[in-house]
Amino acid sequence: MVKQDIRPIKQELRQKYKQIRRTMDPQMKQKKDNDIFERVISLKQYQQADMLITFVSTEIEVDTHQLMAHAWSTGKRVVVPRCIDGTRLMDFCEIQSMEDLEPRTFSVLEPKQNCYILNQFPNSFCIVPGLSFDLSGFRLGYGKGYYDRFLNQYDGTTVGICYSSCLHPSLPHGKYDRAVQWLVTEKFKKHLEKSSNK
Predict the structure, then answer these.
(1) Is residue 68 over pLDDT 60?
(2) Are 153 and 164 in contact (CB under 8 A)?
(3) Which of 37, 156, 188, 198 lies 20 to 30 angstroms, CA to CA, from 31?
């Protein structure tokens, strides 16, 4: 049996959901961002975590800057990724403020060169980026595979944040894709079945 190449399908979906995000009314986006933020911080797993692992959002992504500020204000450690040049791997660095960031890979804000790199993430809560998520918790990333590698060895709580307009009924996924444990949109927060590589 010949396996279908899902890469063209994923690329078409990426363009679709990027367009939805780019054309979203700024005021509506801010309201949705605020609603998602409130749902995330209401999760017991977030409240009890000592460490927030998160991406640093760009203009078309669900805002994480407010979440980082909240984490600092409640005494949590904040950890964000830094791409390792010439690879598809990331280091995860602890930062103390937004001043510890600089524009790097794909113009995304990342920790500066002298950042403190962590290899263990005890009692942590990880916000996972995605252009789209499906209702099983599988994600449509940007196609570089950075987070797939990290998620396959991370054992903390994983949460996908997404606008409801960017949900997909069932995304194509491969054997290395790992579903998130929680899905949060501006309309709901949902605990999913235990994440799996199957």
Answers:
(1) yes
(2) no
(3) 156
Beta strands in the chain (DSSP E): 51-53, 77-83, 90-95, 101-103, 109-111, 116-118, 124-128, 132-134, 139-140, 157-161, 167-168, 182-184, 189-191
Domain total in the chain: 1
Question: In the structure encoding, which two tokens stand for residue 46, read together?
Answer: 């977030």
Q: How buried is 32 (Cβ within 10 angstroms: 0-12 exposed, 13-18 middle, 19+ buried)?
A: buried
pTM, two decimal places: 0.93
Query: How far is it, in rounded angstroms, from Cα 26 to Cα 99?
Result: 25
Residue 143 near residue 111 (C-beta atoms within 8 A): no
Report the CATH number that the domain containing residue 40 is assigned in CATH: 3.40.50.10420
Under 8 Å between Cβ of 157 and 125: yes
Q: For residue 107, give both structure tokens.
A: 């113009």
